[in-house]
Design a protein that fits this description.
heterodimer, A: 357 residues, mainly beta, Methylamine Dehydrogenase, Chain H, 2 domains, 4-stranded antiparallel sheet, 3% helix, globular, B: 88 residues, mainly alpha, G Protein Gi Gamma 2, 65% helix, 0% strand, G-protein gamma-subunit binding (chain A), WD40_PAC1 (chain A), WD40_repeat_dom_sf (chain A), GTPase activator activity (chain A), WD repeat (chain A)
Chain lengths: 357, 88
């Protein structure tokens, strides 16, 4: 009789991702669970990270002035100014320190779903049901009518859902309800590149942080998040694990991953180099969709605004919720962290924007 | 428009995309996960949300003079009320 010992492999469904795999024992809070190798690896990484302390975040400024639901907002690179757009067609530029309104434009259409600040701080772009993206140069001359200097840059065949300037004021990237994304030259209004691949409306997009080059990620109603190469127009990677429309996508500060928020009430983190989903941020008590997500400067915290009027703060590495913020009186529709990471601003259907720090 | 595409076209598009993606290089999670963790730990020192900002350096703090003035005003209002209620 041989007395060699054999390693017995247990096959079954993983306690975390429920896939049928070879399982390993994992100890969580002195309870033994069986995880597949991928979930076990992620669990190991999370275990070795120190837990976060308690967070105290409160509303420091409330920006009131919109007459209807706030749909989108963006920070200026000066970490102080904010542009926001709303359902009534108004686009307002605020000084978040003093809460003063610096500029206001009335768009010819309602539901201005997208707005963006130019990197130089000298212009803003916005669009919505008019199917176009228009650029307005910002001027401090009181006599000048901002609407007169408007430049129509992008033309889509359906509503504009998201727009963003690239690293310069010269190019704009747009996403539309017609299922495509496009890159435009601001000066001439020419289409430089178009991105086809989504099977339904594209709801959001985010550009890779500048050090890592020419890619961007888009999320749509087809539940897919796609990563595109801006130069070739090709989709490089696609992820389809969400169970409903993806409302918001945001790159991780290092550029190697991105997070997405969806109507299926979960936020997920996808690693680009491992080409897979690595974390799901969800709780049974959260049943309303996440409309908007953003990372803190280091990437440790993920802020997500939900349709149940709250903002949940997640620990990216451990997968647990750190804090829940109340204050808005209607859905949180948009959320962005300031460029220096000192605060974040949330816009809501209750007609206000709140700056939290 | 994407909505005008037939089911067959959408599936064809998806298959084309998957064929391209098969060639992508992938790194294992043990490496990718560790690198994310290392990035966060390296950057954690710079993150204002993690290390906190002292109230005097926070540009969004409550503005000092206004808050104190408000308190003074409220106090004055209270004493005035009292004085007026005492007059016959």
């Amino acid at each position: 009789m041989c007395d060699q010992t054999f390693l017995a492999n247990v096959f079954g469904s993983c306690d975390k991702c429920f896939k049928q795999r070879a399982l390993r024992p994992v100890f969580k809070k002195s309870q033994q669970l069986s995880y597949c190798s991928t979930c076990a690896e992620i669990h190991q990484v999370a275990e070795r990270v120190e837990a976060l302390g308690q967070f105290v975040m409160k509303t420091r400024r409330t920006l009131k002035g919109h007459g209807n639901k706030v749909l989108c907002m963006d920070w200026c690179k000066d970490k102080r100014r904010i542009v926001s757009s709303s359902q009534d067609g108004k686009v307002i530029v605020w000084d978040s320190f003093t809460t003063n309104k610096e500029h206001a434009v009335t768009m010819p259409c309602t539901w201005v779903m997208a707005c963006a600040y130019a990197p130089s701080g000298c212009a803003i772009a916005c669009g919505g049901l008019d199917n176009k993206c228009s650029v307005y140069p910002l001027t401090f001359d009181k006599n000048e009518n901002m609407a007169a200097k408007k430049k129509s840059v992008a033309m889509h065949t359906n509503y504009l859902s998201a727009c963003s300037f690239t690293n310069s004021d010269m190019q704009i990237l747009t996403a539309s309800g017609d299922g495509t994304c496009a890159l435009w030259d601001v000066e001439s209004g020419q289409l430089l590149q178009s991105f086809h691949g989504h099977g339904a409306d594209v709801l959001c997009l985010d550009l890779a942080p500048s050090e890592t080059g020419n890619t961007f990620v888009s999320g749509g109603c087809d539940k897919k998040a796609m990563v595109w190469d801006m130069r070739s127009g090709q989709c490089v990677q696609a992820f389809e694990t969400h169970e409903s429309d993806i409302n918001s996508v945001r790159y991780y500060p290092s550029g190697d991953a991105f997070a997405s928020g969806s109507d299926d009430a979960t936020c997920r983190l996808y690693d680009l180099r491992a080409d897979r989903e690595v974390a799901i941020y969800s709780k049974e008590s959260i049943i309303f969709g996440a409309s908007s997500v953003d990372f803190s400067l280091s990437g440790r915290l993920l802020f997500a605004g939900y349709n149940d009027y709250t903002i949940n703060v997640w620990d990216v590495l451990k997968g647990s919720r750190v804090s829940i913020l109340f204050g808005h009186e209607n859905r949180v529709s948009t959320l962005r962290v300031s460029p220096d990471g000192t605060a974040f601003c949330s816009g809501s259907w209750d007609h206000t924007l709140r700056v939290w720090a | 428009m994407a909505q005008d595409l037939s089911e067959k076209d959408l599936l064809k598009m998806e298959v084309e995309q998957l064929k391209k993606e098969v060639k992508n290089t992938r790194i294992p999670i043990s490496k990718a996960g560790k690198e994310i963790k290392e990035y966060v730990e390296a950057q954690a020192g710079n993150d204002p949300f993690l290390k906190g900002i002292p109230e005097d350096k926070n540009p969004f703090k409550e503005k000092g003079p206004t808050f104190n003035a408000l308190l003074l005003l409220l106090g004055r209002a209270f004493w005035l009320e009292l004085a007026w209620s005492r007059t016959p």
